[in-house]
Write a structure and sequence with these properties.
Elements (H helix, E strand, L loop, with lengths): L7 H30 L1 E3 L20 E3 L6 E5 L6 E3 L12 E3 L4 E3 L14 E3 L6 E3 L12 E3 L4 E4 L13 E3 L4 E2 L15 E3 L6 E2 L13 E3 L4 E4 L13 E3 L4 E5 L4 H4 L5 E3 L4 E4 L13 E3 L4 E2 L15 E3 L15 H4 L8 E3 L6 E3 L13 E3 L4 E4 L13 E3 L4 E4 L13 E3 L4 E4 L13 E3 L4 E4 L13 E3 L4 E4 L14 E3 L4 E4 L13 E3 L4 E5 L12 E3 L4 E4 L13 E3 L4 E4 L13 E2 L4 E6 L11 E2 L5 E4 L13 H5 L3 H28 L21 H7 L8 E4 L3 E7 L6 E7 L6 H13 L9 E8 L5 E8 L6 H5 L18 H21 L4 E2 L8 E3 L5 E3 L6 E2 L6 H4 L24 H17 L14 H8 L4 H4 L11 E4 L5 E3 L1 H18 L10 H27 L1
Length: about 1000
């Protein structure tokens, strides 16, 4: 080659350039191969195309530049990849975008990412990334989008990010980040979105955020933020989304709120401590779509005019303490008639007073939820409510409504839930209710309704709950009711004036679990067809005029646990077959039974039976103090005439006393107690002084604070007398509903005993040293904390960890699931009256020294069988926690029965297997945890379960002849599939499709046996 040619330098430069390009391209290929090598699981085979038969620019998920053939984008979004990130990605120097969202990438974000100087967008959301956010990402000075939500990142937001001046979107929500919100974020003047919600940030909101003039969305909810919102933030005129719920913020809203936020669409400040009035200037927020301020301490009249909010779809003012007490303050509802897109209107749990305006008929025809319960509303229910044809939930319970139930309700053909309980409604039940073929539950109890039950209700073939107790209904029970084979949970007609007999057609209700017709005027014999109700558990027939003997169907009705046949005219002998039944309580009092009382089975427990007032009975166990049974007449003849007269007089006097008591009880309209008078049931919870609790907690020191809930704080306490360690829940009586919560929890826990329920030691109700009311409950201390901490240990700040938490094994998780299901089964099936927990979630499952699970926090619980004090057993507002409460019952609160708890349990079980929270941001656009698990069954289960379960040391069962580990992969997978199937079955949208909790216990026990069986077999083989 002629080196002296004038073209030689150009040719040399060209060759060098080609060599450099080839070298750079080979570097990109090597970096991508390194990425592939770190991916351990690729169920969709995405990386199969990454081979030498194609140029890497043609590989799936890769985008290259047209000019340089260098990698500019790596997009593997939602490919179900599992593995970790290779640091060699940092060699892709032309990379502008990385999108690995919605996978299961573990490990830390490589520091080498800081070498990607051209990087503009980094999407790593919804993975399992851990560790700290690398500070040298700040070298990526072109970054406009940094999205790392829904991971397990810890630590603080790096101060070095102050140099990312081009950043427009910073999303770090759903991690375990700590510290305060750094003030330097206010210097990132290009920010349009700042999302830091669901972390553990504390302290105040920095004033500097008010400098973000381009900000459109601010999301900082679900943290531990306190103080007030800086006024400068309210001047950010571009803000469309303002979301700060679930913090400890206080203060009032500025009067100019609706003027300074002219573009406001979403306003969410629920579950804080805001006070004052709702600014009338919000009337100008014409773009508002969601307005959610529930569970705060607002006050005063609501004077906002909603008429300009054409796009308003969700208005939630629940439990905000609103209301001025004026005679009529519901005028604001007139303006809601202009909100044509309104779907949810929740005004319950406030102090609104007044009559419902007739303009309610003009509300949006898209309205699905209308919840007005627990206010001070009066007057009649407007007939125009029948225009709201899209309603599927109508709640007006616990008000002062009078007049008749409008017949126009018969137009609401989509209605699934109707609750008018606890009012003063009168007149007859309109027959048009029979048109509502979608109705799942009707609650009309505790009113003054009269007349007969319309036979048209027999058309409600999907009805599972029918509760009309404590009214003035009369006539016979229509046979049509007993044709509703779907009626499975409750038929409660107690405390009325029904006459006649129970129709034989009751045998059609084979799925019915609870039947209550106590305190009526029913007569005839107890129909043997009740024996066909094979699911029946609770049967209350007391306070009627039934005669005849105890029917033989009880012999084969193995599910019945608490029959109440008291205060009737039943006669004959008590059959011996009752000894063989697994009864929990048997009330036969005040009948005309005669002969010998059995002594075995339930009759051996005086606290579980009652035969009071049955004067012709004899024998039984000595504790019953009945006369001995005699074998011949001669002994009877030896009784003196004077003694017989004395006995007759005493019997008459006793009868008069009992009759007077019965008349008094009837007049008071109180429900008969079905609770056994066992010594173990305390007359009242033991009391403890404020002083002793103050001392035990070192003055309620923050160092002893172990948890904060909706209605109070929980402290660890030690009593000096004996060194007993306890948990003390101090009720925050400033929160609306807190006192109700205290009473509900005391009532729920005082008479129940189960190894998997947190035990109440005592309570305290008095005043503190300042004379303020003080209420607290003392529980047995659970040293291993909550299940929440064990499922999501990375979310706990290191300073708050009292114990070293490791990942739970599969066997431990199954055992915990069995414990929780057993406790629910007890609450729903085995208590004197079914108890609904209403807020089942990981943070309410507590673990003892042996990691045995105990359900706690009964502050939202209620008795399903409403008893003599409707205030205590009534609803305390919206029940449950978002994500764990059943969508189909949203708005029904705890009125939804045991099926609501079963749904929550299903979500809990799915979370235990996947460690995915139901509130994850990945669950949007119709996807939820239930569907996420259902779609993975059965072939993709390994893709969604917690990876630790696939590397569980307990999976190892031994070694083969060559010393290699033998595994039980098949049985592990079988167990995981079974657990997911059970979780999916419990969390079905339709309550009637959900799994029975008793069956859950049995099936999970079988799953546990499968997991343990291989180890047992191996041990037997080695023994030989």
């Amino acid at each position: 080659m002629n080196t002296h040619s004038p073209y030689f330098p150009s040719m040399l430069l060209f060759v060098i350039t080609l060599l450099q390009v080839a070298a750079f391209e080979e570097g990109d290929r090597a970096a991508l191969q390194a990425f592939k090598s770190m991916i351990s699981h690729d169920p969709q085979g995405i990386l199969n195309s990454w081979n030498d038969s194609h140029h890497f620019c043609e590989w799936e998920g890769i985008t290259c530049g047209r000019r340089h053939r260098r990698v500019t984008a790596l997009n593997m979004r939602s490919k179900a990849l599992r593995g970790s990130l290779s640091p060699y990605i940092g060699n892709l120097s032309f990379l502008r975008e990385i999108n690995l969202e919605n996978n299961t990438i573990q490990g830390e974000i490589p520091r080498e990412f800081g070498r990607l100087l051209r990087l503009e967008a980094l999407f790593l959301s919804n993975n399992s990334l851990a560790g700290k956010i690398p500070a040298n990402l700040s070298y990526c000075s072109r970054l406009t989008v940094l999205a790392l939500p829904y991971n397990k990142l810890v630590g603080r937001i790096p101060f070095e990010f102050v140099s990312l001046y081009k950043l427009k979107r910073l999303a770090l929500h759903r991690n375990s980040l700590t510290g305060g919100i750094p003030p330097f974020l206010g210097n990132l003047s290009s920010l349009e979105l700042l999302s830091l919600g669901a972390n553990s940030f504390g302290g105040n909101i920095p004033d500097s955020l008010g400098q973000l003039k381009e900000l459109e969305a601010l999301g900082i909810g679900g943290n531990n933020l306190s103080g007030t919102i800086p006024h400068s933030i309210y001047n950010l005129s571009f803000v469309e989304i303002f979301s700060v719920p679930q913090n400890q913020l206080h203060g009032s809203l500025p009067t100019s709120l609706g003027l300074t936020f002219p573009n406001l669409k979403y306003f969410q400040i629920d579950q804080n401590f805001f006070s004052g009035s709702i600014p009338i200037s919000l009337s100008n927020a014409s773009k508002l779509e969601v307005f959610q301020i529930g569970k705060n301490n607002f006050s005063g009249k609501l004077s906002v005019n909603f008429g300009s909010m054409k796009n308003l779809s969700f208005l939630n003012l629940y439990s905000s303490n609103l209301g001025s007490g004026e005679s009529d303050e519901m005028g604001f509802m007139n303006s809601l008639a202009n909100c044509s897109k309104l779907r949810v209107l929740r005004l319950g749990g406030n102090q609104f007073r007044g009559a419902l305006p007739h303009s309610i008929a003009n509300l949006s025809n898209q309205l699905q939820i209308l919840a007005l319960g627990d206010n001070q509303l009066y007057g009649s229910i407007p007939s125009g409510i029948g225009n709201l044809v899209d309603l599927y939930l109508l709640e007006m319970e616990e008000n002062q409504f009078t007049g008749a139930i409008p017949k126009e309700l018969g137009k609401l053909l989509k209605l699934q839930g109707l609750d008018f309980s606890g009012n003063h409604l009168s007149g007859e039940i309109p027959s048009t209710l029979g048109n509502l073929s979608s109705l799942f539950q009707i609650f009309l109890n505790n009113n003054n309704l009269s007349g007969v039950i319309p036979s048209s209700l027999g058309n409600l073939k999907r009805l599972a709950y029918l509760e009309m107790f404590e009214n003035d209904l009369s006539g016979t029970i229509p046979e049509a009711i007993f044709s509703i084979s779907y009626l499975s949970n409750s038929l409660n007609l107690a405390e009325n004036h029904f006459v006649g007999s129970i129709p034989p057609r009751i045998g059609n209700l084979k799925a019915l679990r609870s039947f209550d017709v106590s305190n009526n005027g029913l007569s005839g014999e107890i129909p043997i067809e009740l024996g066909l109700c094979s699911s029946l558990e609770d049967i209350y027939l007391g306070g009627n005029f039934f005669h005849g003997s105890i029917p033989s169907f009880f012999r084969t009705s193995r599910g019945i646990r608490k029959p109440d046949l008291s205060r009737n005219n039943l006669s004959g002998q008590i059959p011996l077959f009752l000894e063989a039944l697994s009864l929990e309580f048997l009330n036969l009092s005040f009948n005309d039974f005669e002969g010998k009382v059995p002594t075995k089975g339930i009759f051996a427990n005086t606290s579980a039976i009652s035969v009071a007032g049955c004067h012709r009975l004899c024998g039984g166990i000595p504790e019953l103090q009945l006369p001995k049974c005699t074998e011949n007449k001669s002994s009877n003849q030896r009784i003196s005439r004077s003694l017989k007269i004395l006995i007759s007089i005493v019997s008459v006097l006793l009868g008069i006393v009992m009759l007077s008591f019965f008349i008094f009880s009837w007049h008071k309209r109180s429900r008969p107690s079905r609770q056994p008078s066992e010594p173990m049931i305390r007359k009242a919870l033991l009391k403890m002084s404020y002083k002793s609790l103050l001392k035990a907690t070192d003055g309620f020191s923050s160092t002893n604070l172990i948890g904060v809930g909706s209605f109070g704080s929980v402290y660890k306490g030690v009593f000096d007398e004996d060194g007993t360690v306890v948990a003390i829940k101090v009720i925050n009586l400033q929160r609306q509903g807190a006192s109700k919560s205290f009473m509900a929890e005391c009532k729920a826990l005082k008479n129940i005993r189960h190894k998997n329920l947190v035990r109440v030691i005592t309570s305290c109700s008095g005043v503190d040293f300042q004379g303020n009311d003080f209420k607290a409950i003392v529980y047995k201390y659970m040293p291993n904390g909550s299940l929440e901490k064990w499922l999501h240990p990375d979310a706990i700040p290191q300073r708050d960890r009292e114990i070293e938490i490791q990942k739970l094994t599969l066997l431990q998780r199954i055992s915990i699931a069995i414990d929780v299901a057993s406790a629910l089964d007890y609450l729903h099936q085995h208590c004197q009256e079914p108890i609904l927990h209403c807020d089942l979630k990981p943070s309410n499952i507590l673990l003892d020294n042996d990691l045995s699970a105990h359900i706690g926090d009964f502050g939202l619980s209620r008795f399903y069988q409403a008893v003599s004090n409707p205030t205590v057993s009534s609803s305390i507002g919206v029940r449950g926690t978002i994500g764990y409460v059943a969508p189909a019952e949203y708005g029904l609160g705890s009125e939804v029965s045991t099926n609501g708890d079963v749904y929550s349990y299903g979500i809990l079980l799915l979370e235990m297997v996947t460690t995915k929270k139901p509130t994850d941001v990945m669950f949007e656009g119709g996807l939820n945890l239930h569907n996420f698990a259902r779609m993975a069954l059965p072939d993709h289960v390994m893709d969604i379960v917690d990876p630790i379960l696939l590397n569980d040391d307990e999976v190892l069962v031994g070694t083969d002849n060559h010393g290699r580990s033998q595994t039980r992969t098949n049985s592990t997978l079988e167990c995981l599939i079974s657990m997911l199937r059970i979780g999916v079955a419990c969390s079905m949208e339709s309550p009637q499709d959900r799994m029975n909790i008793t069956n859950v216990v049995h099936e999970l026990q079988s799953v546990k046996n499968i997991l343990l069986e291989p180890k047992t077999m191996f041990n037997k083989q080695t023994d030989n």
